[in-house]
Amino acid sequence: MFVTPRRTYGWGRAIRLRKHAQFCRVQSKGRRLGGKFILVIFAPSSFAGVRHGLTVSKRVGNAVTRNRIKRRLRDILRHHNSLCHGFDLVWIAKSNTSQANYAELRMDVEALLQRILRSLPCPPQ
Q1: DSSP 3-state of 55
Q2: What distance in Å separates the CA atoms of residue 45 and residue 26, rounded to the nearest whole number?
Q3: In what helix (H) or strand (E) does residue 77 lie, and over which residues does it extend?
Q4: I need a surface site. Which of 5, 16, 38, 49 has the fewest CB within 10 A?
Q5: Which domains does the chain have, with CATH numbers?
Q6: What is the pLDDT of residue 89?
Q7: Among 57, 45, 50, 1, which residue's Cα sits nearest to residue 21?
Q8: Structural contact between residues 65 and 95, judged by C-beta atoms closer than 8 angstroms
Q9: What integer pLDDT is reported at residue 117 of this predicted model?
Q10: What average pLDDT values come out for the chain (125 residues) when binned by 10 residues?
């Protein structure tokens, strides 16, 4: 019997910030860049790759709205792995993010990623 592998749309443990202390370290020592819908905080890390953390507060909307925004952000960031290795990023949704459609959110994230790449000392890999 042939079993097809299950397709996973979530992030693996290796590329997520999972502990409160990791979020606090990035937020206290990192640089902030703000877009129209998203605020990103990034800091160097001892980890070999790039790790992401998402924060969507109750100011953005109800649970359905917050989860939709997180799914969209995960999907957008899944396709953009062009950052230097050794960085942690925390993505914080602003209160007006619920009015953004997918294309607007993608453009905002891509603009922030370009600004991050310009400010990093290492060439993209």
Answers
A1: strand
A2: 9
A3: helix 63-78
A4: 5
A5: 14-119 (3.30.230.10)
A6: 92
A7: 45
A8: no
A9: 86
A10: 54 83 93 96 86 94 96 88 79 95 95 88 57
Please report the pLDDT score of residue 8 as a whole number.
54
Rounded CA separation 110/75 (Å): 12
User: What pLDDT, in 10s, does the model give residues 60-86?
Assistant: 999 999 999 999 999 998 887 666 678
Q: Residue with structure tokens 């799914």?
A: 71
Beta strands in 45-103 (DSSP E): 50-55, 87-93
Q: What is the pLDDT of residue 86?
A: 82
- In Å, how far are 44, 49, 105, 116 from 84, measured between CA atoms? 10, 8, 22, 10
The region, left, alpha or beta by phi > 0 then psi within -120 to 50, assigned to residue 86 is: left
